[in-house]
Specification:
Length: about 325
């Protein structure tokens, strides 16, 4: 582990864990091996009930000068955990890192160098590798943020979140993560930060993202909530400050999200349809069927059932993927 170099800008690497103690070593070891000379690691434990707490205590004893643990007294959730951790950090740059994921040893140094070369940048990502935890299948993703605009972000979120580094001053100017968002908090933030300054990508696979099939995308009831947040995020981005604050007040209510984005909402129905088809393409027909149960638009119901029936034919997987690419649900190389 390199000695701290106070002349290098300070970087705060923030990662949060909830009941993934068995993945701590993989993540923290990759962060402790960073070649960059001046960084801190802040890990928040959101009231885990497995061995996360005891494992983190061991890391504190061994790496206390470089690693700090924040233990929540009550569950805050990921977004509030990030907000709290950032408020308790002191880096000029904030690096997000997903629980269970890993980073190449030069991740932090390469992203700081990108900021050094372009003082106007607000967010820097990187190429990354998606790894399916259960099978080991790997797929390189090569996003390019150099031409990202507000309008392009409204169409598609470029980042997976975990590979991102932010300039603290821009994060604070944008207002930071919004505590009201249980998911899609990253896109909500990017849509505000892109108005402050441009984004960039380090064209190297600096981040390894492990896909676990216990995530939100594979739990239709939770995914429906995420899709609602996704719809709301883009609507908020086009509102003036007074409209946005009035909407956030409604969102804070117990039924606020469903009031703002009801189940029959056309944009939400498009989200459900698209997500159901992607699940089919990923070979998760059972989960896709559960997700499609939220389809209320009859046209989408018919189209989903058509694709679902094709998938079960001899050449169904190939034909279904061709169809999904034509619909824009899958990228050309998927």
């Amino acid at each position: 582990m390199a000695d701290v170099n106070v002349e290098a800008p300070r970087v705060s690497i923030i990662t949060g864990f909830y009941n993934r103690g068995h993945l701590l070593d993989r993540t923290l070891q990759s962060l402790l091996k960073q070649t960059y000379p001046n960084f801190e690691i802040i890990v928040f434990d959101d009231c885990s009930t497995d061995d996360t707490q005891s494992r983190l205590a061991e890391y504190e004893v061994k790496y206390g000068s470089r690693l700090r643990v924040i233990r929540h007294a009550t569950r805050l959730g990921f977004t509030r955990g990030m907000i709290n951790a950032i408020e308790n950090s002191d880096g000029e740059f904030i690096a997000v890192h997903g629980s269970g994921d890993t980073a190449s040893e030069n991740r932090i140094s390469a992203q700081v160098e990108a900021f050094r070369q372009r003082p106007d940048l607000t967010v820097v990502g990187s190429h990354y590798v998606n790894i399916v935890e259960s099978t080991g299948v790997k797929r390189l993703r090569t996003p390019d943020a150099s031409k990202v605009t507000f309008n392009s972000l409204m169409r598609q979120n470029l980042f997976s979140h975990g590979e991102v580094m932010m300039r603290r001053s821009a994060y604070e100017q944008a207002g930071g993560y919004r505590a009201e968002f249980e998911s899609c908090q990253d896109l909500d933030l990017w849509l505000r930060m892109i108005k402050i300054g441009p984004f960039a990508t380090v064209p190297e696979p600096l981040y390894q993202r492990y896909i676990l099939f216990d995530g939100i995308s594979y739990n239709p009831p939770k995914a429906l909530k995420q899709w609602r947040y996704s719809v709301l995020t883009k609507r908020l981005a086009r509102m003036d400050p007074d409209q946005a604050e009035a909407t956030l007040r409604i969102l804070r209510g117990s039924e606020g999200l469903s009031k703002l984005v009801p189940s029959h909402d056309p944009e939400l129905q498009r989200k459900v349809f698209s997500a159901s088809l992607r699940l089919l393409a990923w070979g998760r027909a059972d989960v896709a069927r559960s997700a499609a149960a939220y389809l209320e638009d009859q046209t989408y119901c018919v189209l989903f059932n058509l694709v679902y029936s094709v998938v079960n034919t001899k050449y169904g997987s190939h034909l279904a993927k061709l169809f999904l690419r034509a619909l824009g649900v899958l990228p050309a190389g998927a």
